[in-house]
Write a structure and sequence with these properties.
Length: 297
């Protein structure tokens, strides 16, 4: 990547991200939750990743322009050879999502953003025999409605996860990364927050990414992020689904992706006084740099 192009991407990173507009923990690709797979070498600040994305659920059949802008950075903070790595992550997400009952959707001439969401945390991975990586995460997510958006939820959660990442699988030229994690979401009393606890408590989060080289830098890519969890409000098991598939232009340390995305949930948790069930489909454009990771066995 040329120096000029680096500056352009850096400026873009000051702005965006896109996918479903839900006030929850956003899907995390394997390179983020497994910093050992993307550490550049031993020592502090071994690697740095950044991503920018814009997405719009333009294929959903309703009168709401549901979209968001997301920007994030995910450095590898420390790596000890091929045995252990610690990574961090910080993201800001601007969201334009559902319209509360009785409210009026925004127009092209006067659109608005409803809330900003922050996500940040630490991710660790430890090498085990057979190329398996043990995973651990502590992170937080919080959604903050803008002034005048009192009907939107202030959602916050502390997230603890443990899991395993498999060695990279290969099927001919295709490569597949898979991980599964299990954990707990809560809002700790330490924060002395007056908002309700998050909907999900115990949660299982498997994820898979498949990539197939097509020609030169061009690849086909697909990712699936289902979630199965216990709903502490309804006191039952529930599930959310998120997936994306499309084309990727891959370099040594960067990629640009055009993706078809889908998202389904019984409640996005975006609205304060009512549930917001949705199934949305649309397109997203993502720019990312770093944290792509060397090939694993």
């Amino acid at each position: 990547m040329s120096q000029g192009r680096n500056y352009v991407i850096s400026l873009l990173l000051l702005g965006l991200f896109a996918s479903p507009s839900f006030g929850k923990d956003f899907p995390e690709p394997p390179a983020l939750v497994d910093p050992l797979a993307s550490a550049a070498g031993p020592g502090a600040a071994a690697g740095l990743g950044a991503a920018f994305e814009y997405g719009n659920y333009c294929l959903s059949h309703d009168d709401v322009d549901s979209f968001y802008f997301r920007v994030g950075a995910s450095p590898v903070l420390f790596a000890h050879g091929d045995g252990f790595a610690l990574g961090g992550n910080y993201e800001s997400v601007l969201m334009c999502g559902p319209v509360p009952t009785g409210d009026t959707p925004a127009t092209v001439a006067a659109f608005w953003m409803n809330a900003i969401q922050f996500e940040y945390g630490l991710y660790a991975s430890l090498a085990l025999p057979g190329g398996v990586h043990a995973l651990a995460e502590y992170s937080r997510t919080s959604q903050h409605p803008f002034a005048g958006r009192s009907q939107y939820s202030a959602v916050s959660a502390d997230i603890l996860m443990l899991g395993l990442a498999s060695p990279r699988l290969r099927a001919g030229p295709a490569r597949i990364d898979f991980y599964a994690r299990f954990g707990y979401r809560d809002l700790y009393d330490f924060w002395e927050a007056s908002i309700p606890k998050p909907r999900a408590s115990w949660i299982l989060k498997p994820a898979a990414e498949a990539r197939l080289p097509l020609s030169g830098r061009l690849s086909a890519v697909a990712r699936a992020y289902p979630e199965v969890f216990y709903d502490r409000k309804a006191e039952r098991l529930d599930a959310d689904a998120f997936g994306e598939a499309g084309l990727s232009l891959d370099g040594e340390a960067e990629s640009e992706e055009l993706l078809f995305t889908i998202y389904g949930t019984r409640d996005s948790e975006l609205l304060k006084n009512e549930a917001h069930p949705c199934f949305e489909a649309g397109l997203s454009l993502r720019f990312s740099r770093g944290r792509s990771g060397p090939a694993r066995g």
